[in-house]
Amino acid sequence: MKRLLIQTMLAASLMAGASVAQAAWPADKPIEVIVGFSPGGGTDVMARLIARFAEKRMPDAKFIVVNKPGAGGTIAFAEIARAAPDGYTIGMVNVPGFNFLPLYKPTHYKPEDLRLIARVVEDPIVIFAKRDSDVPKSLPAIVEALKKKPESLSFGHSGDGTVGHIGLMQMEQLAGFEASAIPFKGGADARSTLIGGHMSYALLTTGEVPDAANVDSPFMAVTQLSQKRTERFSSVPTAGEGGIDVSIASERGFAGPKDLPPEIAKRLEALFEGILSDPEFIAAATADAPCWPSSQVVSGLLNSRKIPRRSGPWRKS
Fold this sequence. Notes:
Helix content: 25-40%
CATH class of the largest domain: Alpha Beta
Number of strands: 9
Distance between the termini: 68 Å
Structural class: alpha/beta
Mean pLDDT: 86
CATH topology of the largest domain: D-Maltodextrin-Binding Protein, domain 2
CATH superfamily of the largest domain: Bordetella uptake gene, domain 1
């Protein structure tokens, strides 16, 4: 009887402690926002922008972006999944890579290990070249060159299984060519390598190279992998116009551990919804296209995507 009483008191104490912790959130320590790519890339820039606006709307909170790049974002996704479900560790997830990678290689997380909170942006992929390089500057010319000499042109992307890599594999399958794929730890690394003249192209989002729309930019947008031309790159043809029916974009959202308390998850959902409807934020995020977070949109992050199927490992450059 005495033992049962002690166990009951201990359980009650733990429940009370959890309630106090939830009541204190988010004032008692900083909230870490984990990003799976290097500083300066599209995911990192968006995370830092949202963190700045989050602190304005939640004055008691401090949001700190923590970069854990590598393995196409899976290092960061696993870190989010393993975190204590107390609301002090959340992170950015990138679809389709978030869903795609566990299907094709061993990872330390499963998509169901995370609780999706809000979708914040959909950013189409574009093939960028260095403007003064002598590489082909149209998709048909790229395909022709690669069919004549496989792997003669190199394409940098943010890591195996990321949206740029998937887009490249889709084009290879549909058009019947083989390119040389070069994985990086983030868009910023691929961008700097391209401008240094060390590879032919980079597959990056529109928000990662916004100045490419200007004729005096060192970057040139060759083809956008979208169903229709984006406003920023209205003069750049789509892949469909170039003969390959491929459309793919980086969908970025926030997630936490699967056991994140519903009360905290709802507060975060409301926070992000408020930020995405803020005219000041929308003006600051002109490089990307903010989206409304909602249960319908969030659940869409886990829907199956049109992704290429391969029986063997990815080719290494």
